[in-house]
């Protein structure tokens, strides 16, 4: 058994070096001895067990398998499984460590293998100098100098990644959702490239697909929220690092994909106690509930609160959270089944407007006072009823229009209740990292304390997005639906 | 659990740096904070389990137990038995790795410990700075840069 150990010190921060080395299949972009390399047997370059099948500049073929990868220790191990070069039983380990007194990086590269008798020295020298030392010098040239390291084509060195995405071919039914292969570009300045691990499905995605909402121009990828891992970061991104576990919930659309390159400002780190699936299932609804109850309206204990669709995604979250904050929650829904779900979520009263109008029932339940605040995402069909169900100086928050646009109203009508109307836009509450940090930290705290809970009712493969939409539109779902990319379901 | 990690490059082969720091009783010879040291019960200083009882130049007294010593890995681990620092379950490791490119040494000194919540930041700064980096600085100036 021959053992080779080489090490060096690079004059660059460890994250800059790890960003390059971490891509197991990316060595043909920097190592002078590697002509071309492709992944075999796995879809992702950071998937332990993946194979890289490559050709050396001398023409020899080598196939290597990733045995371990650690973003914590910034290290990986790999073994040769097939090779034209007789490096039998070859196992290698690459490890980076920070030199804390000066922003430098220690790089250790070692291996053991069993060469044929008589060729020990020749092959040990080939590995030590031709592979390890040559690799050190290539990376040193890429990252040397603090000035150059930030303008380095780090990500473009990594090139486009092949991924999968669900595309809306044209506005229409669920059959217009098609899984396609896409090239996911490296991040530009201010961007990050993510590998999604879980993607949230929301009713707004249906509206984007049908064209009811003007957020998506086909052919395009729908989806507002997901969780995943940062694969690489573009120039000028300092808040996020390679390997961070992150989430986002916001326009622009594009979440129904295995990978995504997007503005780093929209993406935030997930706390350790919030799983990828819970994040993907709840961020959009939870962040919406947070700004509705704490920013658009500052809910006070004892207030009468009316919420439409209390068994739906945001509605259920509003019921839970508002009742935890001490409000008296009244849900307005359409069936006894949904009424039961709303009660389970914390609605003290549930009304089913029918023979008796919504406003009459609300007035009866509140001894003639009316609702101090109403959260109405129904729009056209509910707006007039909402106005009549308000308390004096009540606050009507119109945050959606599921039944159609509210239309033109004379604001003189508001004087009947001295009413206040809000029409908040999610984007205005979530357009800076600072705002997002405040909203998400209160939402995660509510998850921890049990004020709100998340129920992941359906887990489907990304390729089954059409089925997810069908089920959602047929009201055949309970709790949240998420899509899982790749073979990880 | 608080963690401290300090690392540096010393401009000498790992064998030479190891020869200077290997002796568990030799802190006064190379670390600027340490005034004097002895090994309890007359044990050899490379006997795993031996205890060093040393005095800092500012008067503080510390007793530490050798938990592991490796001439193969160039590493040494020890725990604190008694000290004025206010730490519990303190275990530290000092390790050298050769840098084959230039015949230098990558030196790492790390520790894990428990302490009162309010004292953690200051302890991490003091241990990582005065003790670990202070020791590395002394080695760097001894071996030249």
What does this structure look like?
The complex is a heterodimer of chains A (489) and B (145). Chain A is an alpha/beta fold and 489 residues long. Helices cover 28% and strands 31% of the residues of chain A. Chain A has helices at 14-21, 120-143, 146-151, 154-158, 203-210, 276-296, 313-324, 336-344, 358-365, 383-389, 426-429, 433-449, 465-473, and strands at residues 2-10, 34-40, 51-56, 61-70, 75-83, 88-99, 104-114, 161-168, 177-184, 191-201, 225-233, 245-249, 259-263, 268-269, 304-308, 328-332, 349-351, 371-376, 390-398, 420-422, 456-461, 480-484. In chain A, strands 1-7-6-5-4-3-2 form a seven-stranded antiparallel β-sheet, covered by helices on one side. In chain A, strands 10, 11, 12, 13, 14, 21 and 22 form a seven-stranded mixed β-sheet that branches. The two termini of chain A are 41 Å apart. The model of chain A is unreliable at 145-157 (pLDDT under 50). By secondary structure, chain B is α+β, with helices and mostly antiparallel strands. Chain B has helices at residues 14-21, 27-30, 120-143, and strands spanning 2-10, 34-39, 51-56, 61-70, 75-82, 88-99, 104-114. In chain B, strands 1-7-6-5-4-3-2 form a seven-stranded antiparallel β-sheet. Chain B is globular.
Largest interface: A-B, 16 and 17 residues
Query: Which band does the percent of strand residues of chain B land in?
Result: 35-45%
Low-confidence stretches of chain B: none
Approximate shape of chain B: globular
Summed over residues and divided by their number, the pLDDT of chain A gives a mean of 90
Please list the strands of the largest sheet of chain A in the order they lie side by side. Answer: 1-7-6-5-4-3-2
Determine the structural class of chain A based on helices, strands and strand pairing. alpha/beta
The coarse silhouette of chain A is elongated
Our measurement of the CA-to-CA distance between the termini of chain B, rounded to an integer number of angstroms, reads 35 Å
Which strands sit side by side, in order, in the main sheet of chain B? 1-7-6-5-4-3-2
Number of strands of chain B: 7
- Cα(first) to Cα(last) distance of chain A is 41 Å
Characterize the quaternary organization of these chains: heterodimer
Query: How many distinct helices of chain A?
Result: 13
Order of helices and strands of chain B: EHHEEEEEEH
């Amino acid at each position: 058994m021959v053992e080779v150990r080489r090490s060096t010190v690079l004059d660059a921060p460890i994250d800059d070096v790890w960003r390059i080395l971490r891509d197991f299949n990316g060595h043909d972009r920097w190592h002078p001895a590697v002509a071309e390399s492709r992944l075999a047997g796995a879809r992702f370059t950071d998937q332990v067990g993946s194979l890289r099948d490559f050709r050396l500049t001398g023409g020899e073929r080598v196939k290597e398998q990733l045995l371990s990868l650690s973003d914590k220790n910034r290290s990986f191990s790999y073994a040769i499984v097939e090779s034209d070069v007789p490096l039998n039983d070859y196992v290698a380990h690459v490890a980076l460590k920070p030199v804390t007194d000066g922003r430098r990086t220690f790089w250790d590269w070692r291996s053991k293998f069993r060469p044929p008798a008589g060729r020990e020295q020749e092959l040990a020298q080939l590995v030590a100098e031709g592979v390890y030392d040559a690799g050190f010098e290539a990376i040193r040239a890429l990252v040397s100098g603090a000035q150059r390291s930030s303008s380095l084509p780090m990500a473009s060195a990594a090139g486009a990644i092949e991924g999968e995405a669900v595309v809306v071919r044209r506005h229409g039914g669920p059959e217009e959702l098609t899984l396609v292969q896409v090239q996911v570009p490296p991040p530009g300045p201010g961007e990050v490239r993510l590998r999604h691990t879980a993607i949230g499905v929301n009713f707004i995605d249906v509206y984007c697909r049908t064209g009811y909402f003007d957020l998506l121009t086909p052919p395009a990828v729908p989806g507002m929220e997901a969780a995943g891992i940062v694969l690489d970061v573009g120039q000028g991104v300092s808040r996020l690092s390679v390997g961070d576990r992150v989430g986002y919930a916001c326009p622009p659309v594009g979440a129904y994909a295995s990978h995504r390159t997007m503005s780093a400002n929209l993406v935030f780190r997930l706390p350790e106690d919030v799983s990828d699936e819970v994040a993907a299932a709840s961020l959009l609804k939870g962040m919406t509930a947070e700004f509705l109850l704490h920013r658009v309206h500052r809910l006070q204990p004892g207030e009468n609160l009316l919420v439409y669709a209390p068994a739906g995604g945001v509605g259920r979250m509003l019921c839970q959270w508002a009742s935890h904050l001490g409000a008296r929650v009244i849900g307005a829904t359409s069936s006894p089944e949904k009424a039961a779900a709303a009660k389970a979520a914390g609605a003290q009263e549930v009304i089913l407007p029918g023979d008796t109008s919504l406003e009459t029932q609300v007035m009866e339940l509140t001894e003639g006072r009316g609702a101090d605040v109403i959260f109405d995402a129904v729009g056209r069909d509910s707006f007039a009823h909402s106005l009549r169900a308000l308390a004096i100086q009540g606050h009507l928050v119109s945050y959606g229009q599921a039944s159609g646009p509210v239309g033109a109203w004379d604001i003189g009508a508001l004087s009947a209740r001295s009413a206040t109307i809000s029409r908040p836009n999610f984007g205005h509450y979530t357009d800076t990292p600072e705002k997002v940090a405040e909203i998400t930290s209160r939402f995660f705290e509510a998850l921890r304390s049990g004020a709100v809970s998340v129920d992941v009712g359906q887990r489907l493969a990304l390729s089954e997005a059409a089925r997810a939409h069908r089920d959602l539109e047929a009201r055949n779902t309970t709790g949240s639906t998420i899509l899982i990319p790749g073979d990880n379901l | 659990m608080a963690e401290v990690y300090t690392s540096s490059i010393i401009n000498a082969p790992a064998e030479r740096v190891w020869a200077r720091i290997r002796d568990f009783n030799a802190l006064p010879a190379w670390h600027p904070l340490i005034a004097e040291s002895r090994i309890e019960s007359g044990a050899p200083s490379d006997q795993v389990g031996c205890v060093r009882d040393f005095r800092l130049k500012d008067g503080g007294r510390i007793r530490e137990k050798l938990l592991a010593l490796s001439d193969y890995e160039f590493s040494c681990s020890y725990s604190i038995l008694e000290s004025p620092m206010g730490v519990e379950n303190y275990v530290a490791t000092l390790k050298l790795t050769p840098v084959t490119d230039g015949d230098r040494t990558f030196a790492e000194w790390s520790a894990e410990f428990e302490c009162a919540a309010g004292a953690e930041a200051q302890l991490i700064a003091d241990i990582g700075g005065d003790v670990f980096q202070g020791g590395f600085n002394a080695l760097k100036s001894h071996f030249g840069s």
